[in-house]
Amino acid sequence: MESVRVVRVPILPLGMVNCHLLVGPQGCVLVDAGLPGSEKKVRRVLRQQGLDYADIKLIVITHAHIDHAGAARKLAKLSGAPIVAHAGDLDYYQQKKRMTFCTTGWVSRVFLRTGLILRPYAPFTPNVLLQDGQALDLRPYGLPGHVRHTPGHTAGSISIELEGGDAMVGDLLASGVMLGGLMRTSHARRPPFEDDPHQVADELQRLVDGGMQRFYLGHGGPLPATEVLRHAQVLRSLPKQAAGHCCAQH
């Protein structure tokens, strides 16, 4: 099977919010759907690749935050592609509950108060709903790799592991100043919200041990495995009370 091209879909400038297209010889997989209204930005990048909505074979939503799932229902309708996600975030995809948010610093606390991350989006039910311990083989969708559960950012966070060593990890980590930004773009950092940093560290370690070499992020990136391992060590140094005790429903 031919190699897979990873193509960034910029939802906001400077790498602040990214989706990605995984383009193979038999079509493509869309990783995350961006904010509500992002479908035109996705189509722009599709057309740059000589593709259109109908070439999307699968939509993978890494977790239920609005900047990753906001346009999922619309893109599924336009493309006809099924959506895969994890059951841990199902109530949020269906908008039955408001999400909980563990802030990782004063900037994220200020951002949470703006209410932007709390806005509702069009609810949907994933066509393929992974359970704990399950993996989805991407070969039927034309790509050599798997979707696996990688909890820690949210309970239902999932990632893609491609056989070539590329990993699409959503918000397991971020990079740069102001999420992507202008400085320190090759430096890993915690995203604004994170349920359990110790669990994230374990998942990042597992991904690197499993052969992942390059990590593509929802905010900033990509990052090499060496920087990911450095960040995992930082997370492990955090006190245990940082792991899940700061979460509150909003």
Number of strands: 16
- Report the helical percentage: 10-25%
Spatial strand arrangement across the major sheet: 1-2-3-4-5-7
- Biggest sheet features: 6 strands, mixed
Radius of gyration from CA coordinates = 17 Å
Helix and strand element order: EEEHEHHEHEHEEEEEEEHEEHE
Average the pLDDT over all residues and give the rounded result.
92
- The CATH topology comes to Metallo-beta-lactamase, Chain A
CATH superfamily annotation: Ribonuclease Z/Hydroxyacylglutathione hydrolase-like
What's the level 1 CATH class?
Answer: Alpha Beta
Q: Which stretches are poorly predicted, pLDDT < 50 over at least 5 residues? A: none
Tell me the β content: 15-25%
Distance between the termini: 46 Å
CATH architecture: 4-Layer Sandwich
Give the class from helix and strand content and strand pairing.
Answer: alpha/beta
Number of domains: 1
**Shape summary:** globular
Output the number of helix runs.
7
Key descriptive features of the protein:
Metallo-beta-lactamase, Chain A; 25% strand; 24% helix; 250 residues; alpha/beta; 6-stranded mixed β-sheet
How is the topology of this model organized?
Elements: E1 5-12, E2 17-24, E3 27-31, H1 39-48, E4 56-60, H2 66-69, H3 72-79, E5 83-86, H4 90-93, E6 100-101, H5 106-114, E7 128-130, E8 135-137, E9 145-149, E10 158-162, E11 166-168, E12 174-175, E13 188-189, H6 197-209, E14 214-216, E15 223-224, H7 225-236, E16 248-249
Parallel strand pairs: 3-4, 4-5, 5-7, 11-14
Antiparallel strand pairs: 1-2, 2-3, 6-16, 8-9, 9-10, 10-11, 12-13, 14-15
Helix pairs in contact: 6-7
